[in-house]
Design a protein that fits this description.
185 residues, Protein Transport Mog1p, Chain A
């Protein structure tokens, strides 16, 4: 009986430990808890984000996308980040044309690519990057994650991080929020 209880506890422990994502490993992220969590559903009911209840949030939609904008407006801009997450209609292919388009966007916005990669996001192909530049007289980092969801849909998230303090920690917090996104379709 004692061996059976130890076996059950071990199995529960193994399955209750969440495997760290490749992206979390790259940024050496630890598990981050959201204070006073609330769930926001995008206008078209494609996905849910869990964020802090004191964050300011706006929804946007069009014929082709449904987006959530959110930020911790209680903190100074250089201590927080601005997150935009969207569910988009359209075909997405991670090919030479896609990467050329990303490079063009970075050049147009005077951003220097710091790090990027192709990983999986919730078992789907993903491309992400972190770039750095200046915006509104601040050093500015942009973390972008794009993941294919189906043949004709994809998920995109863009995180704006101002200043140079705790950039990796803020990226990790954004990753933690994004990894918990729940797709409703």
């Amino acid at each position: 009986m004692k061996k059976l209880i130890i076996l059950i506890v071990t199995i529960i422990f193994i399955f209750s430990c969440k495997k760290q994502s490749d992206l979390s490993k790259i940024y050496d992220c630890s598990q981050i808890k959201i204070e006073n969590p609330k769930t926001i559903i995008d206008f078209n009911k494609n996905f849910k984000l869990t964020i802090s209840s004191n964050w300011k949030t706006k929804l946007y939609f069009s014929e082709f996308e449904s987006e959530i904008f959110t930020a911790d407006t209680i903190k100074q801009l250089t201590k927080s980040f601005i997150l935009a997450a969207s569910f988009n209609s359209g075909k997405l292919k991670f090919d030479t044309n896609y990467y050329t388009k990303i490079d063009s966007i970075l050049i147009k916005n005077n951003l220097q690519l710091i790090n990027s990669g192709n990983e999986t996001f919730q078992s789907q192909p993903m491309y992400w990057y972190v770039a750095k530049g200046f915006k509104n007289k601040f050093t500015y980092h942009k973390f972008n994650l794009t993941s294919k969801r189906s043949k004709n849909t994809y998920f995109n998230s863009s995180v704006e991080i101002y200043g140079d303090d705790n950039v990796n920690e803020r990226i990790c917090k954004a990753i933690s929020i994004l990894e918990k996104v729940e797709f409703l379709q």
